[in-house]
Specification:
CATH architecture of the largest domain: Alpha solenoid
Order of helices and strands: EHHEHEEEHEEEHEHHHHHHHHHHHH
Number of strands: 9
Mean pLDDT: 92
Largest sheet: 8 strands, antiparallel, barrel
Shape: globular
Strand content: 15-25%
CATH class of the largest domain: Mainly Alpha
Distance between the termini: 47 Å
Structural class: alpha+beta
Radius of gyration: 26 Å
């Protein structure tokens, strides 16, 4: 078993700052009035792995940190098992040198991996920082506040570290989130997603931040409405902020996953809407809509350039005027991504994430007795309300106009997300069947929407540029043909879902 002093997990928030912000942080009333006298020490942390980075590939980081001639070995998981935003597994032991002691790993999640590590570990990257530490009391929590400045290095590659870390030592995570929110609303700080280990891995492998796919929490029968809402929102926020580094650098999948996370968060708020305090939930919905529009613009141009144009103009059939359209679209795509980059480098996303977390941990419900009810007791009413909107919007589907089909598509997505969230409360076979029927209809509606968007974007490019007219006309005709084909399969897909048993009743 791990040593008795091992810590099973850490709850920590990392905030990034620019060099000129340090003096503002140190002068902050939060630190000056409520924190202990700071202690500054140099920390040299060496990370170990195999040459092939076997341990990193399994989601763990092994390090030895030297502070004042003493050494501490730490094993960290790169994420929590339930996808919690600021919580990671952590096991820690004092050791005698800067070389890891494999025997210490017995009883940890990597025990079965030890045969792959024995004799294979080597230093792979290191961080060298000057850390200024305070202890601070906030609400019911004692928080370690660490101001880190230095470098992370892997071979000849390096990048600067400027982080304000808030780690809870005792008390509730809610108090930690409130402290972080208080700091970011008064200082130019933004959430940092990557750990020092992840940054070292990127430098070692010369790669960019990768996109991440969200994990839907599995909710048990006994979970309360308040707990269910917190876990659903937490998983969405984890996906949202987890994709920020990739999306900020223009990664197509990172942008897509951030947009999906925004939709899932909005769907969660709508699912619980009748029982939530309306002012705050509506304010969060509006801010998510605003962010969603910026992400949506970048995503639409990504799909247009990377998917629509290659499908409409296969390489062997492309003409010179096709390249003119592609070039014009690339310009709009870069503009949309630049707008997104500016947004993500602001404090808006950080404030949204922390505000939503703090709100969900307090009393977001209209009545306290609703928060304490089992989610399984109110789930049928929640699903009924979302389903009724889908059913109403799908009525007489053959006669629906373009805008009506778009509204149906959005409602269907929200229904599918709701079913996904509450799936753990019902028999898996029935839920799976419903999700499959939703997916089929969603794919058809998605094809119709993609072709409509393609025509709209083509019109935007074509305005005032007669040289694009031949390619634009061809693309609009191609889009319309695909749209009509999808429309033909729509009634059957709708009937399958409409006539299916409602598993929650």
């Amino acid at each position: 078993m791990p040593d008795s002093h091992a810590v099973p997990s850490e709850i920590e928030i990392k905030l990034l700052f620019e060099a000129e912000t340090r003096s503002l942080i140190e002068a902050s009333p939060v630190l000056r009035e409520h924190a202990t006298v700071p202690v500054t020490k140099r920390q040299i942390t060496t990370y170990y792995d195999t040459a092939a980075l076997f341990l990193s590939g399994k989601g763990f980081a092994l390090r030895v940190r030297e502070v004042g001639g003493r050494f501490v070995q730490t094993l960290k998981s790169q994420s929590s098992e339930d996808g919690s935003l600021f919580e990671r597994g952590e096991w820690e032991w004092p050791v005698s040198t800067d070389t890891p002691e494999l025997a210490r790993l017995k009883g940890t999640p990597v025990e079965s991996l030890m045969p792959h590590l024995d004799g294979q570990l080597e230093p792979v990257w290191l961080s060298d920082v000057e850390r200024t530490q305070h202890l601070l009391t906030h609400g019911d929590a004692t928080v370690e506040v660490a101001l880190d400045e230095g470098m992370v290095r892997a071979g000849q590659a390096e990048e600067p570290i400027r982080e304000l870390e808030l780690e809870i030592k005792s008390g509730s995570a809610a108090a930690l989130h409130e402290l972080a929110l208080e700091l970011v609303t008064s200082l130019p700080l933004r959430l940092g997603v990557e750990t020092k280990a992840e940054r070292g891995y990127r430098l070692r492998t010369d790669t960019l931040p990768a996109s991440v796919h969200g994990k839907t929490p599995v909710l048990e029968q006994k979970v309360s409405a308040a707990q269910g809402l917190q876990r659903i929102l937490g998983s969405g926020l984890c996906t949202l902020i987890g994709n920020e580094p990739a999306a900020r650098l223009g990664d197509v999948e990172g942008v897509h996953q951030m947009r999906v996370a925004v939709r899932r968060l909005r769907s969660a708020l709508q699912l619980f809407a009748p029982r939530l305090e309306p002012h705050s939930s509506e304010r969060f919905t509006l801010e998510l809509q605003r962010l969603g529009r910026i992400l949506g613009a970048a995503r639409d141009w990504d799909v247009f350039v990377s998917g629509t144009l290659p499908a409409a103009f296969p390489a062997g059939e492309a003409h010179e005027w096709h390249s003119l359209l592609t070039q014009a679209a690339e310009v709009r795509r870069r503009q949309a991504h630049e707008t997104l980059k500016v947004e993500l480098e602001s404090s808006a996303l950080t404030e949204l994430v922390l505000s939503l977390m703090v709100w969900s941990e307090k009393q977001p419900f209209v009545k306290e007795d609703i928060a304490k009810k089992r989610l399984s007791d109110i789930a049928p009413d929640l699903l009924d309300r979302i389903w009724r909107k889908v059913h109403r919007r799908g009525h007489d589907i053959k006669e629906l106009a373009e805008d009506d089909l778009h509204s149906l598509r959005k409602s269907l997505k929200k229904f599918r997300y709701a079913v996904d969230y509450l799936a753990g409360l019902y028999p898996s076979r029935q839920v799976k069947s419903c999700l499959q029927q939703c997916k089929r209809l969603q794919q058809t509606l998605g094809e119709i929407n993609d072709m409509t968007v393609a025509a709209q974007l083509t019109d935007e490019l074509d305005v005032g540029n007669v040289a694009l007219a031949p390619a634009a006309g061809q693309l609009v005709a191609w889009s319309e043909q695909r749209r009509r084909k999808a429309l033909k399969s729509l009634p059957v897909a709708w009937k399958e879902l409409r006539d299916a048993p409602l598993f929650w009743r």
